[in-house]
Please model this.
Amino acid sequence: MDSAFGHLTVLGSSLVLLCGLTLLWRRGSAAHIGAFAAQSVALAATAGLIAVVTGSRELWVVAVILLGLKGILMPILLKRMDRRFGGPRELEPYVNTATSLVIGGLLVVLAYIVTWPILDVSRLPTRAGMPLAMGLIFVSLFVIISRKKALTQVIGFLALENGIALLAMLGTYGIPFIVEMGVFLDALMGFLVMQIVIYRIQETFESIDVEQLNRLSQ
Amino acid sequence: MRLSYLALVGAPLAAALAAALVRPYLRGVGAAGALLSTLSLVAALRLAGQVLAGATPTWGPSEMMRVDALSALLAVCVAFVAALAAWLGPGLGRDERYTPAQARRFRIFSSLFAFTMLIAVTANNVAIMWVAVEATTIASALLIPLHVSKASVEASWKYILIGSVGIALAFVGTVLGYFDYVHLAGERESALNWTSLMAAAPSMHPRVMALAFVFIVIGYGTKAGLAPMHTWLPDAHAEAPAPLSAMMSGVLLAVALYAIIRWKVVVDLTVGSTLPDRLLLVLGLASLAVAALSLIGQRQYKRLLAYSSIEHTGLMCVGLGLGPLGAFAALLHLVNHAVAKGMMFLLSGRILDRYHTTEMGEVSGLLRVMPVTGGLFAAGMLALAGLPPFGIFFSKLSLVRAGFATGHPWLMAFVLVLLLAAVIAMLAQINRMLYGAPPDGVRVGESNRWGLVPLALCAILLVAFGLGGFGAFQTLLDRAVAIVSR
Amino acid sequence: MARGALALLQGLLVLALAPGVVGLVRWLKARLQNRRGAPAWQPYFELRKLFGKEVVVSENASWLFRAAPYVVFVSTAAAALLVPVLAVPLPIDAVGDLLVVVYLLLLGTVFLALAGLDPGSAFGGMGSSREMTVAALAEPTVALAIFALALSAGSTNLGQIVARTMADPAAAVSPGYLLAFGALFVVTLAENGRLPVDNPATHLELTMIHEAMILEYSGRYLALIEWAAWLKVLLFFSLLGNLFVPWGVATVLTWAALGWALATLLAKLVVLAVALAVFETRVAKLRLFRVPELLAVSFVLAVLAITVSFLVR
Model:
């Protein structure tokens, strides 16, 4: 039973990571938003699974909020932003797709190496998925630095938050409730502020191509 | 005890609410905000007094908030600079530069900014501290483009993106620390309290905590402007309106460093101080080098001040990696820098209003156009350059002594060379600004003389710190150092 | 003795089944596209027709052109003998394992590419260069994907991998296995010239890869090459089916076990044929310069599979 639980959580973590890698693979904004929504749903499912097995009511709330906020609400807002700005459908990223994917794979291997000491310490059945969560964190960082569209950078950041949430879930079955709520609030506020700034960017630059943000360079 | 704390954090929150609820914007709201910020400062001083008397006030369920000497020191700094910004910011006097909407936005977000910073420095729960630091990014990001322009929008985007990424990494470190504690001591409501972490530190797993510390330093270091995560800083601090820059450069960087310090104390107990010290030394030196090199050839005075902030934060970081004496130097430096940088940015705001340009080449004859402003600006520049009798001279001296004491003579030589380069760069530029003939079309004579009073007070404080400071301040500083270098 | 008989049986079985599997896929695609389609045993008729036809060889062709179909056919058939189809342990597994299979397939690919270049026609050269681009990325992924499974089993012997999965059912849903399955599925599409990598039914210059290489072939040569291509499809289906869902494969050599193995094999082939047909109908062909991206995805999936299997005990 324990082993099946461990396997299923690792399966969920793999799905979350794969959605993150999809951000490196596909190019259009619609694909990115879809990948993020799928990732959040997979994350919520994993949270729900852990909640069922550990009987933690707090994790249930976390799972529901993840589903509602990041699985439904944020993709809707992102799609609305995408429709407003349009812009070129596919911007060539700084690093081409095939290389990005290979780098993504290498980053996951790096994540395994980095989380080795953690795997030694943890005794939880969910520990096998922690390197995957760390891998998602690294891959999301790479998405943020290698993509040119401001919208994609925001999605990369949201994926980064998903990775951290997954890490917390797998490592300690979640964090204290008050903190979790504070984190959610921060995440939501941060996202809204980013939205506002992107609107501003669109107004002043008439595009959300980050390459145009290069006036301040000294 | 409780009342002081409530006043400390409640006052800025009330100011923000007042500004948000009152439509349209009234100058009275600005005045109320300024008075509330003074109340906050008084409360901070009272808390500091209580700490000096031996108490350690706590507040909240499972002691979420706790004020010890280090917190009190930083709370006073934050409240002071916030009060400066509140008294000298838009929306108070008769101001044609800012529309009422802009003034209202400033009042709301700068008060929120102060509120979140105060929560961050008085939080016992490291996760609450994290939430508050993240909130500072959110509160300040919307204020940077107060005057909307391509440059300011670009600066605010870089700020919020890089800042949020950094904060997210700091959260990874926090989660790892919590993870280690939980696997040691079981889950408890107070698991994320700094005091609990300190108690459990010697028995935590070194490799996990080392990994956590790396994430913490990179994460909070991004907010502190340490190289190589500093790329957002010159843009954000230069494009923001002057009072906001004063708060960001003066105290936000210090708050981020405070977060690193809190974690360092815990990790030192678990891992030993070699790794954390080395990490901080490397990052501090990198920041120092980047800043020194960028100061040479700087053409805009606000960016000059921003790079100077990177330089000073780098210095503080180096100090933190040099043992107890270095910690003393770093904290002394922190206080002096907060006052000096706050004053300098507010002065730069006055210069911008008069000359309507940020290029140093186009500013000349400052001493003739605005004698008091120019004089204070010169004094501040000398203070930042680390010349006596200002306090930064003594903190730099202590730093170098600490370096020699811990066996890093070559390192200190390198630091001194970089500092020299920075000083020469800054002083050369300031000379060009102060002397010479004023350009055409620039009105001569000070405007808004009352606004100069707080700034003159800052200058006096800087000299006072240099000449030995107040006894109470010294004691508080010593107690804070004792916490850091346990 | 029994093992020799088993080897013969397996060889004949794969040779006989291969055209049927591809015929089934074609028929399903036709039905999904609202056409009547040729019956599933049409490929058998095609083979008979081609074997009876005259061979026409270009004047510029060398011995390579004539030798290639035989090399391709023999190497693919040999590889098919080394893959777990009916029973484990495999009859000739003293000779070969995973790496030998990969090498044999690569041998066939290289000879086919050379044969495409040999007559000097424009289409052939173009097809060969495209094929090598795809093969360069796909071949290592085959090895890596199955290597991930080999890591858990402790040996690259395919029979042992199957035995190990049968002994430990929980491993079949482990992420290492699932990632390897994903990688192998994408590689199946690439290696066999299926959508979205290549369209097996097209002869348009812009879109063909495999068809371009064999454009010059006719008669029995074409028959051998087509048969080898169908064998490859069956080979990959057997890998996908028997490595990841090994239940049904016979471990003892009794008629009952073999009969059951045959039944489950046919069931797995039908399921995979349906999956392939549905998938091909659903996706559009990728533009050629996007194919490396898809293959990079499968490569990364394989690397992830290895990492997950290796570093998590």
